[in-house]
């Protein structure tokens, strides 16, 4: 592969991209102006503002006691997976791949939060049969499922709303713990991501690395409760749904399902702390894991803005 | 071709681009802010501000008398071509292609301007043996060759300088007449183009139409005076220079040197009048012809800003 780089336009493209772009995520000294933000959108490059949201009421007020108080036993949607592999590729014994969505349950918030926190009290070897819960609905769940938290976060990100000339399309709330990892994927949204409690660890690939990510049509499936075995989840294949192109390469297991181009990938790795504000440009691949805050869970909020599909970039 | 569009990713790309983007150049009601400009840079889309430069001293003051007065007999660089085909593809009798640069001469400005104006006094059939002159050096010639005009135009375009965080790389002066046409080409600059006298007619193709433009390595050549025949220009092939990738398709002769994709091209055609300000995004193909103002010539000024080569767009 290496010796072919010069003659292979795709390899050249990836290599040139890395030569022209930094190998780290830019750190801005303060929340950007709309113009400063638009320069990043134009270049489709990420940035982080360390502490950029630390003055948000959410960053000052949210903890287990406060969340229990204001959300109480309201019903929230919870993603259940056996191993924390939410929306992930699962390789079957015979080698075929499935994209498995979580088993979704409606639970009183207090019960859900308690379960998430209790994970930290188990020794590692006793966790294996205890499935993983994660609030991660990504459908604008903050105003619909968590309306009592709305007062603690701004309704939009002003610099992004001004630059992109639109309000956010969705405002999402994420609560989980160290056991959940979101597999490598991309979204067709401009994403402003704010860590509130704990840490999130992002692995990032620019869109030019599409040839590294080994996108393949993968059959859809879903975890469902095993009949007769309480708490056990099994995979239910969706025989009807069309297979959807899905990245099948994992930058943390670079030799598994690699393409000839995967070794050219230069993943950016960045950790966000409570109060950090992150711009994840549209169509960037990202894999996300998390570390708990002091009370055994992590919380984030994000704002999705519709990306521009005109111009040339979306290609 | 048409029936293959669905299965051919490149044809799909071009067709989708046209579906998602307008078929005209946006007209802005006023000179944009830096942020408004940056949105166009981000989308790599052109716009025109009709009359956006009409308050410039150049637009009020420049005419043949004024230019003669302030430039006088200063030496300027003039491009000479037999047919007005400056920097153009020339097909040889045997079918091979050459990219022929003009014969460049140093001339007193007054003589040059007189020659350009006199073209309008000749009947068409007597012009054929009279070669065409065009001031079009494109190397930042305004400050170097026309310093006496600098006071009449702003040193930069403030919204572009603010947005792109840099002064212009070059400020160019163009003076020619209806006989000169610049062949389809692209520049790796963000271009702010201001018409001062007469009209310019642009034919524009977005970068996604690269497959329509039929870029091929073409041998370099140059017009040189024929020995012993005053005023006659002949082609001198540069046997040493490497052939350079050059668009060989002409949207005004769509059936000549067309590729399988050329019929998918949807050229934008737009005419700029005196006082109009135009943003030509980096890497857009453009072919430019002109119409004379009231005194038999056309003048334009443009500002080239270095494009951003980082981010993903340059690909």
TrEMBL record, chains A, B:
InterPro entries: Cupin_8 (IPR041667), JmjC_dom (IPR003347), RmlC-like_jellyroll (IPR014710). It comes from Cryoendolithus antarcticus. Pfam families: Cupin_8 (PF13621). SMART domains: JmjC (SM00558). Residues 142-315 form the JmjC domain. This is JmjC domain-containing protein.
């Amino acid at each position: 592969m290496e010796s072919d780089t010069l003659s292979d336009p795709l390899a050249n493209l990836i290599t040139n991209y890395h030569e022209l772009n930094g190998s780290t995520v830019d750190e801005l000294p303060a929340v950007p102006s709309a113009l400063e933000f638009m320069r990043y959108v134009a270049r489709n490059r990420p940035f982080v503002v360390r502490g950029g949201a630390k003055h948000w009421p959410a960053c000052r007020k949210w903890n287990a006691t406060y969340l229990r108080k204001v959300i109480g036993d309201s019903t929230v949607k919870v993603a259940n997976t056996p191993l924390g592999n939410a929306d992930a590729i699962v390789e079957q014994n015979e080698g075929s791949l499935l994209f498995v969505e979580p088993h979704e349950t409606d639970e009183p918030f207090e019960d859900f939060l308690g379960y998430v926190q209790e994970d930290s009290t188990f020794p590692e070897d006793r966790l294996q049969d205890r499935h993983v819960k994660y609030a991660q609905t990504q459908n604008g769940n903050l105003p619909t499922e968590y309306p009592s938290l709305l007062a603690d976060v701004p309704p939009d990100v002003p610099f992004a709303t001004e630059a992109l000339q639109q309000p956010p399309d969705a405002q999402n709330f994420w609560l989980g713990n160290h056991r959940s990892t979101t597999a490598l994927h991309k979204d067709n949204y401009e994403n402003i991501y704010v860590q509130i409690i704990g840490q999130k660890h992002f692995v990032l690939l620019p869109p030019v690395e599409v040839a590294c990510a080994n996108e393949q049509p993968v059959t859809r499936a879903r975890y469902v409760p095993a009949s007769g075995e309480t708490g056990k989840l099994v995979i239910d294949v969706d025989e009807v749904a069309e297979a959807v192109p899905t990245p099948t390469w994992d930058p943390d297991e670079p030799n598994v399902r690699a393409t000839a181009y995967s070794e050219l990938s230069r993943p950016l790795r960045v950790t966000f702390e409570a109060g950090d504000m992150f711009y994840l440009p549209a169509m960037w691949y990202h894999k996300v894991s998390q570390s708990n805050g002091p009370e055994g869970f992590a919380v984030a909020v994000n704002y999705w803005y519709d990306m521009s599909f005109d111009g040339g970039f979306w290609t």
